[in-house]
Design a protein that fits this description.
By secondary structure, the protein is of the alpha/beta class. About 40% of the residues lie in helices and about 15% in strands. The protein contains 20 helices and 15 strands. The strands form four sheets. Strands 1-4-5-15-10-11-14 form a seven-stranded mixed beta sheet, sandwiched between helices. Strand 6, helix 7 and strand 7 form a beta-alpha-beta unit. The N and C termini lie far apart (about 60 Å). It binds pyridoxal-5'-phosphate (PLP). The site of pyridoxal-5'-phosphate has 21 residues, from helix 7, helix 14 and helix 18.
């Protein structure tokens, strides 16, 4: 009774009015202590210019990719579509706190309220908008878990573009409902590796049973876009402009934490390519760079431990070496992660912005096994009610570890994490977890050594 009264007295949701939607994206490049390494041409090894990227991206996005302006205005048309689900709620996880008996306060920003169910439309919408504005009529893309493919299909439908999605085969098979969702929004979808591209056919010839990977699907989508004038390529993570668009998350959260009368000691997110993590963390890192003490934690799977065990090196963003070379933490471009259920975290690289911030000691990273992550997801669902996406559950697991460590040290922290999406289309993974059939895979040292041989001979970062 006492506990119920205490909980009722404290506020659960911190909501913003539509008029409080951020009007600008925040560009962390303007505040970074170390400049990014240049992006290199895959053929010449020389730094690339805007013209090299023009066959794949509209000029406005290329401009954002290289911009050092602190803030970039969000077009009204984008704000109007954002208002369908933004601002998103920020919750105090009082029931979770109570269940684990922590002295710490836990908050989470919930991005699963968007129509496709994750943070991904925060960048899908502006990407579709700028492409349409500059005359493209069709976009090609890859998707891992299906969240990004859904988000781009949704954005293209609302803005009026055709869309082709190459979906990593293992997810295509595990998640038929994501496929249907993508088709409902009018996009064409195919399992990757596919027969539709040269690189897909080459991979199938060598590995007919390939489960696919984000690296392979990116190759297919890039080849598709490079071969057609009407088509641009759209990437759901990793690139500077994608992370930029996601910063609406953290900007809203800063205001919402103020409403809650709190400021986080710890900010946590899961990392695949890095976009949801950056979206929440970058506006807080702005505060950290300005002198505030914040622990910023990136959570990844042991099966694909890019930040915790990868090398900081120049590498391709895709398996078939079609993309420019970027300096990032990588496990090697031909690394195919084990088919864990957090499909969106199965990527060999990570955003160069995040890599550099890790090197500069502003972000730290941890890696977890999937059964531990699912146990945390089930605890969260049983207390807060929301069924998390397996990717987002990595952030929940990281949060529980931080809270436990604080309790053991007799400390009280304020923790904020990003719940990047719901798991309504991931129930197959939950079924396997409940049946005890989820395999714990930590990346094997020999396989890591093998995969890293793929980057031997590539330029090294200065
Ligand atoms: C719900 C969810 N969270 C996180 C991710 C990982 O991507 P990123 O690191 O770009 O946020 C994905 C990718 O598909 C996702 O669907």
């Amino acid at each position: 009774m006492q506990q119920t009264r205490t909980r009722a007295a404290s506020q659960t949701k911190f909501l913003l009015d539509e008029s409080q939607l951020p009007r600008r994206w925040y560009n962390i490049r303007s505040d970074m202590p170390t400049a990014l390494q240049p992006v290199l041409h895959p053929g010449t090894g020389e730094p690339i210019g805007p013209d090299d990227l023009a066959p794949l991206f509209p000029m406005e996005l290329i401009g954002q990719e290289v911009s050092e302006d602190a803030e970039i205005a969000i077009p009204d048309e984008v704000l109007e579509i954002y208002s369908l689900w933004r601002p998103t709620p920020l919750f105090r996880a009082s029931r979770l706190e109570e269940a684990i008996g922590t002295r710490s306060r836990i908050f989470y920003k919930y991005e699963g309220v968007s129509p496709p169910g994750s943070h991904k439309p925060n960048t899908a919408v502006p990407q579709a908008f700028y492409n349409k504005k500059e005359g493209r009529t069709r976009l090609s893309t890859e998707t891992g878990a299906g969240q990004w493919g859904s988000a781009l299909a949704f954005a293209c439908r609302l803005i009026g573009l055709e869309c082709k999605v190459y979906m990593v085969k293992i997810s295509y098979e595990q998640k038929p409902n994501r496929r249907s969702m993508i088709q409902t929004w009018g996009a064409e979808i195919v399992a990757s590796p596919s027969e539709d591209t040269q690189c897909g056919r080459a991979i199938l010839e060598e590995h007919p049973d390939s489960p696919g990977s984000l690296g392979i699907a990116i190759s297919e989508a890039v080849e598709d876009a490079a071969g057609r004038d009407d088509t641009a390529y759209s990437l759901g993570s990793v690139l500077n402009h994608v992370l930029l668009h996601q910063t609406v998350i953290g900007q809203e959260a800063l205001v919402q934490m103020e409403l809650a009368g709190a400021f986080p000691d710890v900010v946590i997110g899961c990392v695949g390519g890095g976009s949801n993590f950056a979206g929440l963390a970058f506006p807080f890192l702005r505060e950290k760079i300005a002198g505030r003490d914040i622990d910023v934690l990136a959570c990844e799977p042991e099966a694909c431990p890019t930040l915790t065990r990868g090398l900081f090196a120049y590498d391709f963003g895709d398996t078939s070496k079609l993309t420019p070379l970027v300096a990032m933490h990588t496990l090697g471009h031909d690394f195919v992660p084990a088919p864990i259920h957090a499909g969106g975290l199965r990527y060999h690289g990570v955003a160069p912005l995040i890599s550099q911030l890790v090197l500069d000691g502003l972000i730290r990273a941890e890696a977890y096994l999937q059964n531990d992550v699912f146990a945390s997801a089930v605890l969260f669902a049983g207390t807060e009610g929301i069924l998390p996406a397996p990717e987002a559950a990595h952030a929940i697991h990281g949060t529980l570890r931080v809270a436990k460590a604080a309790d053991e040290a007799g400390e009280e922290r304020t923790i904020l994490f990003n719940l990047s999406g719901h798991g309504h289309f991931d129930m197959g993974a939950y079924d396997r977890y409940f049946a005890g059939k989820l395999e714990d895979v930590a990346l094997d040292e020999d396989e890591m050594e093998r995969a890293l041989r793929a980057i031997e001979g590539l330029p090294t970062p200065a």
